[in-house]
Amino acid sequence: MHKFLYYILPLLLMLAGATSCSSDDGPDAPPEPSVSVSRTVLVYMIANNNLGSSYHSDERDIQEMLKGVEGGKLNNGRLLVYHNRPNNNSAYPPQLLDITEHGPKELKAYTDAGGICSVSPERFREVIADMKRLAPADDYALVLWGHGNGWIISPGDIKSRSFGPDDSTWISVPAMAQALEGERFQFIYFDCCLMGNIEPIYEIRHLTDYIVASPTQLGIDGMPYDMNVPMFFKELPDLVQAAKNTFDSYHGSMNQMCVIDTRHLDDLAAASREIFSTLSRYPSANEINTLQKLGKYTYSMLRYDATIAHDMDQYMELLCTTAGTPDLLTKWRETLDKTVVYKATTKTSIDFPAFSITRYCGLGSYVICNADDITFREYDTLAWWTDVVSAAPAYSVK
User: Fold this and answer.
1) How far apart are CA 58 and CA 264, in angstroms?
2) 222: CB partners within 8 A, 6+ apart
3) CA pair distance 209, 170, nearest whole angstrom
4) Domain boundaries in the chain?
5) How far is it, in rounded angstroms, from Cα 149 to Cα 198?
6) pLDDT (tens digit, 9 = 90+) per residue, 63-121?
7) Cis peptide before 86 (omega within 30 of 0)
8) CATH number for domain 37-263, candidates 3.40.50.1970, 3.40.50.11970, 3.30.450.20, 1.10.10.60
């Protein structure tokens, strides 16, 4: 008996020690990584605003997601939601959810201590790292859920508007692009307004092959997740059908959608730069008034309501007509056809219901009317300005 204890006691002590070390991690220790799957889609949901507190859109969309994953529609994939909940505080911290056929499962809770909020670059990087650790996959995709305001930036102002807000804090598209630098997504779907314009799309082109977005405002319901989740998890994501599902879900009420192949955006930028390089004067007010308006940005602190989206094809047509360069327009349109995979529009837009939409190429563009427009809301800090628009001799900043 003593000989048996002589051999078995050390083994029992080792097991006890291992158990003790494991329990030291505590209940808040992060779960172990999961087995790798084919694709993980992360819905980055910013609902600590009126979308959550007033409309409860976050709750409805999560219910739609649960319906969308039924019957094996995840296709050996994972659907995660980073849920920045309304009335965010210690009782309702942001959480990372795994949306499964058996219901949502919390993978991690977050704290906003130290000034880190859900639209801070630090939180973006943290959540992406958690996604890769807790739901590793062959490839990843990102859905950005919240309010969108295109490329709008404001220096040193927490109300700098591009994507958000978490309470009153937003993140600009350049800051988002920098936060996600080095990441690669199968696609990025903007379930928010005004992001289907060339400026924000060009800013994040290196993060993904495809972008789904709208250059104008969308209705409060956003996309139909029950219909689109299965599209995201096909072996090759069916983004055109997902965009069609969203467009059709509004049943003819005002909206616009597009699917962009970012692999042609550098060529589109080069063709656009050629056109801008011929521009020797600002377009006149009468010329600008002929352009199709798509989306605008309204904010009480602005000096005026800013039209930040005109139809890009018509804009390039105007510039080529002004400069007498029809050959450049033909080259540009050939590239546009490769870039815009899908586009759909109703006859009017939410921002300009009084104007019929007669031109819609799938991309919106900001139009510079005078010297003040170059620096308006830091437009001249965008990559699209630096790489493309600044080539115009007329826009040389003295």
Assistant:
1) 34
2) 57, 61, 145, 191, 192, 246
3) 25
4) 37-263, 267-339+347-393
5) 13
6) 999 999 999 999 999 999 999 999 877 788 999 999 999 999 999 999 987 778 999 99
7) no
8) 3.40.50.11970
